[in-house]
Structure to design on (262 residues):
């Protein structure tokens, strides 16, 4: 399950965020110090980092931001009328959202979820089902499960169990109507996720491979070439829509080759 890391000023703020995220699909991981952030980033898929306003003033975030520019940062804490410098600092760091403790508490979970990496990725993949010719109800239902954790190597049996059907039925029906088979779609999403992670200098290619469930960096590169027709380095820094375009072209090429049109 994806994680939201939180380094907040007060237990009450942490409790409000925990209540809000309990309804979603992200797990809250409370950090005791700034030093605890990076080890977790290397071990788990992180959707966002939420920081208290006091922590913003104490933590050297410029270096962190340089190493992990693609991970959303969100401020959540008390604000005063004379906190203009703090707000300016948030702007410089590219904060995805500035939430106010005591005002946004009832909806803090929803607001954080709205600004996670997955939320941005889903917006970028809005046209993907149509481009991949996923039109049947079972295809779209499976897509909704896959896109929630795109870096995972989803197993057909587990997806079928969540959808209430047999593994064989899901495998057969998912590829109907000219759509890619389930394994290819899983790999599409893993490549999208890998390109996103690789945009962070704080992750080397081995960490990117590990977090997206590949056995090695070489395996990730092979799947990327098969899926998108280009190396992972080509996709780094590109918008999700652009990565999807590469994948769509590779899929069309594969279909034409199979039909003897090339």
């Amino acid at each position: 399950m994806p994680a939201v890391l939180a380094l907040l000023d007060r237990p009450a703020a942490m409790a409000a965020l925990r209540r809000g995220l309990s309804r979603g699909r992200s797990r809250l991981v409370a950090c005791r110090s700034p030093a605890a952030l990076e080890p977790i980033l290397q071990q788990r898929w992180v959707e966002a980092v939420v920081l208290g306003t006091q922590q913003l003033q104490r933590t050297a975030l410029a270096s962190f931001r340089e190493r992990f520019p693609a991970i959303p940062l969100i401020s959540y804490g008390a604000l005063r009328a004379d906190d203009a410098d703090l707000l300016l600092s948030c702007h410089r760091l590219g904060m995805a959202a500035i939430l106010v403790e005591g005002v946004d508490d009832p909806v803090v979970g929803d607001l954080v979820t709205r600004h996670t990496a997955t939320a941005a990725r889903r917006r970028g993949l809005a046209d993907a089902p149509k481009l991949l010719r996923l039109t049947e109800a079972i295809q779209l239902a499976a897509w909704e499960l896959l896109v929630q954790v795109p870096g995972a190597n989803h197993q057909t049996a587990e997806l079928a169990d969540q959808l209430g059907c047999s593994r064989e039925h899901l495998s057969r029906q998912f590829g109907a109507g000219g759509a890619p088979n389930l394994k290819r779609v899983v790999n599409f999403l893993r490549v999208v996720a890998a390109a996103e992670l690789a945009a962070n200098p704080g992750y080397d290619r081995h960490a990117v491979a590990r977090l997206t469930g590949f056995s090695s960096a070489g395996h990730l590169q092979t799947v990327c070439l098969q899926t998108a027709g280009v190396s992972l380095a080509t996709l780094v820094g590109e918008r999700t829509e652009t990565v999807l375009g590469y994948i769509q072209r590779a899929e069309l090429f594969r279909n034409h080759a199979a039909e003897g049109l090339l």
